[in-house]
Amino acid sequence: MCSDEPQQSNMSADSLLSMIHRELPWTQGQLARLGRCLRAGVEPAEGLPSYPDVVVWFSDLASAVHSIIASMYPIGLSGGRRLEVTSRAKTISTLREKLERMRWYDIGRIEDLAGVRVETEMSLREQDDLVKAIVTTFGPEHCVVHDLRETPRFGYRAVHIRLRLPAGRVEIQVRTHLQGLWANGYEALADLYGRGIRYGEPPGGEAAMIAVQELQRFSTVRLTEFERVWEALLSIEQAGEVLQSVQGEGFADLVYNKFGIPVAGMDKRSLGYGTPGPLTGVEVHERWALETRKEEEALTAILVSIEQQARRALKEVGSE
């Protein structure tokens, strides 16, 4: 999870492809020794690269991958949904923290030294399609996909693509809008309670522990359930001819009882319709879509509020 400023290259497509296929100018041994110097807090020995040089290299690499992905969807996804693509290289402080925490790592094997994040409003199926398109663009032989939606990492859910390129390693995080908002909120809690919560370390104090656990559960339960309902809604939309042929309380039972929405068997007028009678399949679908959109708005508001409150609390702590 990263939050650095976005970067993007203005190079041509040929230059971008050339950049990602360049060979690293340092050996793995040199990078490993540089990592040991950073971990120990000492200046790099003679013959080793400086970390600023390494940052520039991986920043350019992240920027190239960023631009290639952005060029795949110049007008965004269907419905005018803009693809938000950002990139960065790790700062020396975050790198040192990671090297100290994971002492078996060396710089050359850190997956997210160069990082790219891709976010937009999309369903899980569209997220899968976007991941497949990125893998195809860079070549399956260069990609390792890690799906963290079914096996979240301390509440964090996304799909990561780890690029193993001649120029170095790049981690691409592909997240839905809600997955991104949750990650921003959790990152804010990590700044407030200690970055160790990103690795499963308990925060100090009962109130902090409850806040962290509740936000993790919010992701693995409520967000996961919302995504499941939205996926089902899209499936019904795509099977419109079946939806048109199904009417009445039986369809309402099938849909709404499954998701715990008490609509089945209700009269139309009790739900705001002008005429009495049971709901048709199309009307059930319309009602379901409306309730799903309301839930998405509620989830968005909650996650934005969580991040804002954490940032406000952090600011107050800093001013004491």
Give me the Rg, rounded: 24 Å
CATH class category name of the largest domain: Alpha Beta
* Distance linking N and C termini: 28 Å
The neighbouring-strand order within the major sheet is 1-2-5-4-3
How would you describe the shape? globular
CATH homology superfamily name of the largest domain: Beta Polymerase, domain 2
What structural category arises from helix and sheet content?
Answer: alpha+beta
Total count of strands: 5
- Work out the count of structural domains: 2
Proportion of beta-strand residues = 5-15%
- Enumerate how many helices there are, as a single number: 10
CATH architecture of the largest domain: 2-Layer Sandwich
Order of helical and strand elements: HHHEHEHEEEHHHHH
- Subunit arrangement of the protein: single chain
Question: What is the CATH third-level topology name of the largest domain?
Answer: Beta Polymerase, domain 2
Share in helix: 40-55%
Low-confidence stretches: 1-8, 240-253, 255-264
Reported for the largest beta sheet, the result is: 5 strands, mixed
